[in-house]
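Notes on consecutive records. When two proteins share a document, each keeps its own sequence and its own token line. Never mix them. Below: protein one.
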Amino acid sequence: FMNTLEAESKILPRFPNSYHIVYDLDNMGLFSSNIIIEDKIDGELCGTVLNLNNPMIRKRDVKYEFSEKHSNRSVIAWMKINKEKFLYMSKIGSYSIYGQWKIKGRNFSERFIAHDVYDYKNEFWLPPLEARMHLQVAGFSIPTLRFYGKFDDCFNFCNLKIKKFCIKVYDETKTTHRFKLINECKRKNCLFC
């Protein structure tokens, strides 16, 4: 039997780090991989799920918080208002939703921008295009998709002049790597600069 913390950790694991883009992706064996490129959303990383109809929340640097404490009231209120989105996701799989909680700048209904889906039954992150499709059908706000295809097909991406973006590398079954580029990349020989 798992204790409560182990069960909660399985349902809402810590979100993997997104590493700054590196210039030696070919040496990592990723250069011919499938990728998507999305706008990077600024906010507080937050994992969310309805577990037995109760909101569960995980923030990156904070262990699990399930009560209506002051710091979580707005997230819990948002989850209750948007319960049908979580119910839809729970009907199609054992999914936890991860995204960025926007403190300000958007109206209340659009404050959570969902960007990843974790299958806690099978313990893997859904491939990004599949995750985006499910999130969009459920009604979640999602980041703008800028590119999808093979890594070696996206050299013209730098012409888009996007200052912040995320790259997700995936295979047929799961997301395998995450990278980010924020503002201007100062790395020598960066593929995107």
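Protein two starts on the next line and is unrelated to protein one.
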Amino acid sequence: RKVVKNRRPILAENEQKELSDLLERGEIGIDVILINQEMTKEAALDRLMKSATHNAYFIHTEKHHQLAVKFEKGSAWRYYERSNNRRAKLKPLVQYREKGKSDKTHLIPIGFHGSENDERLLVDFDSKINRYDLKNFEEYISNVNATEEVLWFVDIVKQDDETAIWKACVWDSQGHIIKEQEFHDKNKFIWR
């Protein structure tokens, strides 16, 4: 798969103001739809193959924190303004039991959805994993998305020892896996 390194687009001043206003109002670039059954990887793919773009299917249970969403080509840099103040006020549904070296980490990079206002899209996760391994995964998918649609599934699974494994799988529009990876944060978590 040929991947083109992509950069965020340069917006005209009026486009930048319109985007800033949208994010300031707390609007979000995806529709989050609550579902009532955990998804297997196969069920997530099936749901996304039938879905419109920018519909996100979300569930939070005692052991799973899941999000599945389809993004049209070129979605990765649609929203890229950040608000550390807004993010700091959110209390993730999956968080560290004790303070540690964690980041408040978006399930899907903010460029795809623009939300610093939705605790469902944010979890505590090891800052080293977030800033290196997970970032590399996300940048690869963002670059693929510059030229094609992507179907993205995140399943954060609580382990018996209270650690968490972040499972990420991204498919193309034909259902072929573009990239799949797991990230194990060995810190102890609480599920709200």
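For the record: The two ends are 39 Å apart (CA to CA).
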